[in-house]
Write a structure and sequence with these properties.
By secondary structure, this protein is α/β, with parallel strands linked by helices. The chain has 2 domains: 24-136 and 265-292, 3-Layer(aba) Sandwich (Rossmann fold); 138-261 and 297-347, Rossmann fold. It is 41% helix and 19% strand. Helix 3 packs across helix 4, helix 5 (137-151) runs parallel beside helix 6 and helix 7 crosses helix 8. The longest helix has 21 residues, at 2-22. It starts with a helix and ends with a strand.
Length: 348
């Protein structure tokens, strides 16, 4: 009888220990405002984790903070580390203060901060265990603005989620790209420009989009987390168009004519590859800006629904941008200083 009990205890111990191992996740992603399936920034970053980790002998998990704020983000990081996280992905500038603290509290854990840097907070630093990835959103916005005017649209709108630097850069680039195409075509373009103060979809966002379409807007550049889902719904009702953001959103709705993308998935996968291949020293303690010259931004021409704007035109424009022939100087604090010629900008 004792032998039987001993055998049972050994078997139970095996399963308990095995269960503990299964609960350890080496890679962690902490979501920003929104969910992992927001079809935008969080999802793009998570797809980067999957792009690297699937099929490999490495575990991964995501954590959604209980609320927005440094304390809540730190609590999520603490939980991830207690569950075995060795490298943590944090998508969004809202994590800057959090990472400035966490990188010092956990010097043996690696942090990848997308769209921000701990150096940007007062007294902040970037330690050797942190890699900051920024993107040239103004270039992606420029490509989208240029393409949509070349496609034949003249009445446009930019709907930003919140006036934070990455969103502002998207918007300013969009205006400048649209104006560049308008000058080439010798036409006039109207752009309604504003922010809805949220990154979440909802009835108020849709109402704003409905009003824009009712005022004659043909295309809305929906720039901010999941607000695009509300704009797509409004566009469907109005038989109008939407420009997606961050990732290729063409599969979300037939109203999406193109998307102003940045290489979220690829940059996360590359950071993970550097860590697991023992090459963290090539990225740790550094902040990089991924632009057209590194294929860090672009439009998904394979899935875009253009009828007039050609891939040949896009490739020529992209090459000029990558080669530095098109320079986009954007001061996120100086919207009134945008140098436009054939574009009328109004608020809403």
């Amino acid at each position: 009888m004792k032998k039987i009990l001993l055998f049972i205890l050994i078997v139970l111990s095996f399963f308990v220990l095995d269960g503990c191992k299964r609960d350890k996740y080496t890679i962690a992603l902490i979501t920003d405002v929104g969910d992992i399936d927001d079809k935008s920034f969080n999802q793009g970053a998570w797809e980067g984790v999957l792009m690297y980790a699937e099929g490999k002998d490495v575990t991964y998990e995501y954590y959604k903070p209980t609320d927005q704020g440094t304390d809540e983000y730190l609590a999520a990081i603490d939980l991830a580390i207690s569950n075995g996280a060795e490298i943590i992905i944090t998508p969004g500038y809202l994590f800057e203060d959090t990472i400035n603290i966490a990188q010092k509290q956990y010097p043996n854990v690696k942090f990848v901060l997308l769209d921000g840097s701990p150096e940007f907070v007062e007294g902040g630093t970037i330690e050797e265990n942190t890699y900051s990835v920024l993107y040239a959103e103004e270039q992606s916005g420029y490509l989208a603005g240029y393409a949509i005017v070349k496609e034949g649209y003249r009445d446009l709108a930019f709907m930003g989620g919140m006036a934070v630097p990455p969103v502002v850069r998207f918007g300013y680039g969009f205006v400048l790209g649209a104006d560049a195409a308008a000058q080439e075509l010798d036409v006039n373009v109207n752009i309604k420009y504003g922010y809805v103060e949220t990154f979440k979809e909802g009835p108020e966002v849709k109402s704003t989009a409905v009003a824009l379409y009712n005022q004659g807007v043909e295309v809305v550049f929906a720039c901010g987390g999941s607000i695009g889902q509300s704009v797509m719904s409004a566009a469907s009702d109005a038989n109008a168009k939407v420009i997606g953001v961050d990732v290729d959103q063409s599969s979300d709705s037939p109203t999406v004519i193109t998307s102003a993308m940045k290489g979220l998935r690829e940059s996360v996968a590359m950071a993970l590859e550097a860590y697991f291949n023992g090459k963290w020293d090539t990225v740790g303690g550094k902040s990089v800006v991924l632009d057209a010259s590194q294929n860090g931004v672009g439009l998904p021409m394979d899935t875009s629904r253009f009828e007039n704007f050609t891939e040949e035109e896009y490739n020529a424009l992209f090459k000029k941008m990558a080669d530095g022939e098109i320079e986009i100087n954007v001061d996120v604090d100086s919207f009134n200083d945008l140098d436009v010629v054939n574009t009328t900008i109004s608020g809403y």
